[in-house]
Amino acid sequence: MKLQNEHVFVTGGASGIGAAIVLDAVQQGARVSFCDIVVPAGEAYAAELTAQGFKVMFHQADVGKFDSLKTAHDAIVKELGPITGLVNNAGVNSNADAVEMTDEEWNKFFDVDLKSVWHTAKLVLPSMRAAKKGAIVNIASIHARMTYPKYFPYAAAKSGVIGLTRNLALDEGIHQIRTNAVSPGYTLTPLLLSWFEMLPEKKAESMAVQPMARMAQTSEIAKVVTFLLSDDASFVNGADWIVDGGLSCRFA
User: Fold this and answer.
1) Inter-residue contact 57 to 13 (CB < 8 Å)
2) Residues sharing a CB contact under 8 Å with residue 61, sequence separation 6 or more, in sequence order
3) Contacts of 248 (CB under 8 A, 6+ apart)
4) Digit-coded pLDDT (tens) for 31-90
5) Where are the domains of the chain?
6) Distance (Å, whole) CA 59 – CA 57
7) How confident is the model at residue 54, as a pLDDT?
8) How far from 203 is each of 144, 209, 252, CA to CA, in Å?
9) What ranges in 173-251 are assigned the alpha helix state H?
10) Which run of H or E residues covers position 136?
11) Would you please indicate which residues are annotated as catalytic (active-site) residues?
12) Distance CA 233, CA 111 (A)
C-alpha cells in the first residue's frame, strides 16, 4: 500500500496506459481521480472500480483546453482533497508531413501533448508547494530519442515533455516536489493493437526488433509510474525512465 493516503490524478485514464496507472494506484491504496475526453468509457471504468471498493472519481476534460482542465481539477479536489501525485498521460499521435501540416494542426496537437503538461502542473503545484510534498510523472516516449519517419511533431512534443520535466525538477525540488518522466517503448494498448490489426506486417516488423521478443503490457508501465509517485522513489528527481525492454539499445 505504498500510495496510502495519497490523492493521485491521472489524465487520459479511461484506457490504455492511463487505465493501468489508475488501477495500480488504487491497488496501492491511493484515492484516484482521472479525466478523459471519452466520457462513457471514463464513467464506466470509474463505476467498475468503485464497485470493487476503491475510491475513484472520473471527470470529463479536454486536456488541450485549460478551462476544461481547471473545471475538472476544481471538482476533483473538492471531492477528494488536494492532489499529491500527478500523472500526465493524456496524448494523441501525429503522423504528418513537414510541408503539408498546418499551423492549426500543429497548435492543436501541441496543446494536448505538451502544453497540457504545463497546465496540469500550474493547477496542482500551489497545494503541493504548501504541503512541501508532491510527485509528478510525465509520460514521454522513446520517440524523444529515436523516432520514425513523419513523426516529427510527436518526437518534438515528447522531447519537450522531457525538457519540461527536468526544469520542473529543478524549480520545484526546493519544495520537496519531485518530477520525473517515463518513456515507454512498444506497449500493447488498444491503439497499438488496432494498428496491428490493420497492418499485420507492421506487427511482424515490430516484433522482430524487440530484444525481449515481446512488447510491454500496460501494467508494466504503470508499476514504474506508481513507484515514481511513491516514497520509495524519494530521491529520484528529474529523471527519464526508459521502459522499452531494451529497444533503444539496438543499433539501427
Assistant:
1) no
2) 11, 35, 36, 37, 68, 69, 71, 72
3) 142, 145, 146, 185, 242
4) 999 999 999 999 999 999 999 999 999 999 999 999 999 999 999 999 999 999 999 999
5) 7-187+217-240
6) 7
7) 98
8) 22, 10, 18
9) 190-198, 200-208, 218-229
10) strand 134-139
11) 154
12) 30
pTM score, whole prediction: 0.96
Which residue do the cell numbers 492532489 mark? 83
Which residues does the chain have with pLDDT short of 70?
A: none
Contacts of 158 (CB under 8 A, 6+ apart): 113, 140, 141, 143, 144, 183
Q: What is the DSSP letter of 232?
A: G
Q: Determine the Cα–Cα distance for residues 33 and 73; give it in Å rounded to an integer.
A: 9
Residue 131 is which amino acid?
A
Q: 12, 221 in Cβ contact below 8 A?
A: no
In the CATH hierarchy, which fold is given to the domain comprising 7-187+217-240?
A: Rossmann fold (3.40.50)
Report the C-alpha gap between 78 and 80 in whole angstroms: 6
